[in-house]
Write a structure and sequence with these properties.
The protein is built from 14 helices and 18 strands. It is of the alpha/beta class and about 425 residues long. A twelve-stranded mixed β-sheet has the order 1-5-4-6-16-15-7-8-14-11-13-12, with helices on both faces. A two-stranded antiparallel sheet has the order 2-3. A two-stranded antiparallel ribbon has the order 9-10. β2 and β3 form a beta hairpin. α9 packs parallel to α10 and α11 packs antiparallel against α12. The longest helix is centred in the N-terminal third of the chain and has 20 residues. The chain is globular and about 65 Å long. Bound molecules: NADP nicotinamide-adenine-dinucleotide phosphate.
Length: about 425
């Protein structure tokens, strides 16, 4: 059912597939990259993002490099085309082609099917959700000094309360858990209680924190903060903190230093080349990133905390329309905006496509096409500086000209040159 677009390059399919193993990546010059359009505002922002990505690749590499897009189905379009919300063929294709990009997918609240977005992350083991939050010059912000915000959130993507182990109040399963807790564990819960389980494991925590520390070292960033609620949930959130410090010692002993060591051994002066590993309780970190954002560089955290903090941080740099993201595992990667389907704007050609455009730039970085990703970021800044923006930024910027989603993308393409 997947549909290959732009089949104008006469090369065998096998020579156009990205390959990745043991951290080594091979990217052909004419790769096939799958995309999922998404629900709600998905088609609008995907159309805009695709136009910008293609234009940047063309400008950067002329005809020496080009992406052919392979459409995969999921969500509402998936259901209409195949009768399934998340066809197995879609997951198999992402595994086969290694790198993909997607629009947002709808999930009903409090009823109906479980999140397709979460299912994609879990089934493909895309364990690190990476969300950079950096203020772009000229973008309106509620902060006094938005230029101080430059962080990357590493959110664990496969477990926590997102694991989907939960039972409705009054169900047989909820009743049996309630009696088990009473009879075997001595906890008494009211019979009308809904139950959810919060699994957090050592293996999944350590691989996520390893990715976060490796990123900080790679980019020469000063710190990694373990964000948790371990004072209350000791054996899940508290364990996340403990395992985070452990993996820093086990795998990066000579390259990291804890806050305790910093003051006990180094008189508070951070040794050059070492990453400071610190931890903060989640609620407190929310106020710190507002008051002292310059003290935070990489935040490694569990699934729910990561979801909350990345949306809050997005607000500090212009809102959800400006927030890109990536879901990365050892075998494949799926790039997607932080926000959802914003259903009230579906089909209006209105919303800000920057989130997906910047996710596309992250995807180009990931495959090593940095000349194209740089062009995208530069052209986006110029477009916003010119004061031509979508409604979300226009309502925060005096004298700005509001343009439609597609028009905004066209201006970026013009600025790419
Ligand atoms: P949402 O879709 O993220 O939208 C909430 C609000 O954020 C919008 O009404 C709009 O604010 C602003 N916004 C979002 N995207 C924007 C953009 N590109 N440009 C400008 N403003 C933007 O959140 P939601 O309404 O809570 O969720 C809707 C659906 O999306 C749900 O089914 C949810 O499960 C799903 N969802 C999917 C994903 C995903 O696919 N990864 C992620 C989150 C949510 P204003 O109203 O102020 O203009």
């Amino acid at each position: 059912m997947a549909q290959l677009l732009q089949i104008d390059i006469t090369m065998e399919k096998k020579d156009r597939i990205i390959k990745q193993s043991d951290g080594i990546q091979y990217v052909p010059d004419f790769p096939i990259l799958p995309f999922i359009e998404g629900d709600g505002i998905g088609p609008d922002i995907w159309c805009a993002a695709r136009m910008v990505i293609e234009s940047a690749v063309h400008r950067a590499y002329n005809n020496q490099r080009k992406i052919s897009w392979l459409e995969l189905y999921a969500g509402e379009k998936g259901y209409h085309k195949t009768g399934e919300w998340l066809p197995k063929e879609t997951l198999d294709a992402v595994k086969e082609y290694v790198v993909a990009i997607k629009g947002p997918l709808t999930t009903p609240v409090g009823k109906g099917m479980r999140s397709i977005n979460v299912a994609i992350r879990q089934k493909l083991d895309l364990y690190a959700c990476i969300r950079p939050v950096k203020h772009i010059d000229a973008v309106p912000s509620p902060m006094k000094n938005p230029e101080k915000i430059d962080m990357v959130v590493f959110r664990e993507n496969t477990e926590d309360v997102y694991a989907g182990i939960e039972w409705q109040s009054g169900s047989d399963e909820a009743e049996s858990i309630i009696s088990f807790l009473k009879e075997e564990m001595g906890f008494s819960l009211s019979g009308d209680t809904g139950i959810g389980i919060k699994p957090i494991s050592e293996k999944n925590t350590k691989r996520l924190v390893t990715k976060a520390i490796s990123y900080a070292l790679d980019k020469s960033l000063p710190s990694v903060t373990l964000m948790h609620k371990g004072n209350i949930m000791k054996f899940t959130e508290g364990a996340f903190r403990k395992w985070g410090y452990e993996v820093a010692k086990e795998r990066f002993k000579d390259k990291t230093i804890t806050e305790e060591e910093l003051f006990d051994i180094c008189n508070g002066k951070q040794p050059e080349g070492k990453v400071l590993i610190k931890d903060r309780i989640a609620d407190m970190l929310f106020q710190q990133v507002l008051l002292r954002p310059e003290e935070y560089h990489v935040i490694a955290t569990s699934n729910l905390n990561g979801d909350y903090i990345s949306d809050a941080l997005a607000a500090q740099v212009g809102g959800l329309g400006m927030a890109p993201g990536a879901n990365i595992g050892d075998m494949c990667a799926v790039f997607e905006a932080t926000h959802g389907t914003a259903p009230k704007y579906a089909g209006l050609d209105k919303v800000n496509p920057s989130s997906l455009i910047l996710s596309g730039a992250m995807m180009l970085d990931y495959i090593g096409w940095k000349k194209a990703s740089t062009l995208i970021r530069q052209a986006l800044v110029s477009t916003i500086k010119n004061g031509t923006v979508t409604y979300d930024l226009a309502r925060q910027m005096e004298g700005a000209k509001e343009v439609k989603c597609s028009e905004f993308a066209k201006r970026i393409v013009e600025n790419i040159g």
